[in-house]
Amino acid sequence: MAIYTDIDDQDLTQEEKNYFGNAGYFTRSGDVMAGLVYERFMYTQYKELNLVPAGFAPPTAGGHGKDFEFFIRNYNSIIPQNSTSGGMGMNIGVELKLSETDDYGQSGVKYDGAWVLHGGMDGVAMEKRKLLKAAGVEQVIRNRWNPKGVPNIRAGVYSTQVSEAKRQEDKSRFRSFEYKSNAFVNLCAKYYLSKQCPYINISSLGLYHFGTDPAGLAKEFGVKNFTTAVKGMVVRVRLKQSGANSLTYNASLKIDTDAGVTASPVNLNDTIFAEELQEDAMMCTNAPNNLALLKALL
């Protein structure tokens, strides 16, 4: 089921002005930077446990790639009875989010003969647009706004270059809206799987797999499937006042918290759970050298 709903236009908050005005999509107030702090926290925690593969480092500000990667026992592998082996291990990629209110894509929107996503050309901005495009957000916007004609504010014609009457006309024709669709959840999962990230850890909710569970964490620990635990996602497209004579369009994809999301029983933040994973990982026959050395010392 998919539903369009008009929502109120809003002035940009100072935080959003910083966010949308910065090519790296990082706020001076620290909101997005908090995500980087979380990535560093996870990296440090698991690095101390000798579970982070050699050569991996979390993305820098403005960079992109896997948020997190660590070595873990493959719980799908069968260990023969009376075997002294702890099975085989593998490196897994994990997307990291702070809470269910985080965005899964964020972009500016403009009319350039068609409604398109646009913004900075740094790694983070491009990745956020890529996810929205993969979810079909450009077509969602076109379906909603194409029947309303060509906007006065468009590529090559800034809002400061048109009259107040024309700005108000655009506000009246191109109303902010949200679009809810169950399809977004699967499209989001497919996007992260294409990034070699089969798992996501949401700090406030726990660890999930994206419908593919290569390490067998659902069987061993009850890890939830993101595509069924998240009941829906929503795209919000807003025309916002960003200055005395300036309007901007932006789009974001988020979990639909009104629809609900089921918490997972385990969380990578949990130090006890992390140590349990370490104990199992060091028993693997293919454990990294530093982990095998640690086992020998214990």
Verbal overview:
The protein has 298 residues and is of the alpha+beta class. It has one domain (2-297). Helices cover 33% and strands 23% of the residues. It is built from ten helices and eleven strands. β4 (103-111) and β5 (115-118) form a beta hairpin. The model is unreliable at 15-32 (pLDDT under 50).
Condensed summary:
This protein has 298 residues and is an alpha+beta fold. Helices cover 33% and strands 23% of the residues.
Strand content: 15-25%
Looking across the biggest beta sheet, what order are the strands in? 1-6-10-11-4-5
Order of helices and strands: EHHEEEEHHHEHEEHEHEEHH
**End-to-end distance:** 55 Å
How many domains? 1
Number of strands: 11
What shape does the CA trace take? elongated
As residue ranges, the low-confidence spans are: 15-32
Helix content: 25-40%
The largest β sheet comes out as: 6 strands, antiparallel
Given helix and strand content, the structural type is alpha+beta
- Average pLDDT metric: 84
List keywords for this structure.
alpha+beta; six-stranded antiparallel β-sheet; 298 residues
Describe the protein's topology.
Layout: E1 2-6, H1 14-21, H2 31-48, E2 68-73, E3 89-97, E4 103-111, E5 115-118, H3 123-134, H4 137-145, H5 164-173, E6 177-181, H6 183-194, E7 199-202, E8 206-209, H7 217-221, E9 224-225, H8 226-229, E10 233-243, E11 246-255, H9 271-282, H10 289-297
Parallel strand pairs: 3-7, 8-9
Antiparallel strand pairs: 1-6, 2-3, 4-5, 4-11, 6-10, 7-8, 10-11
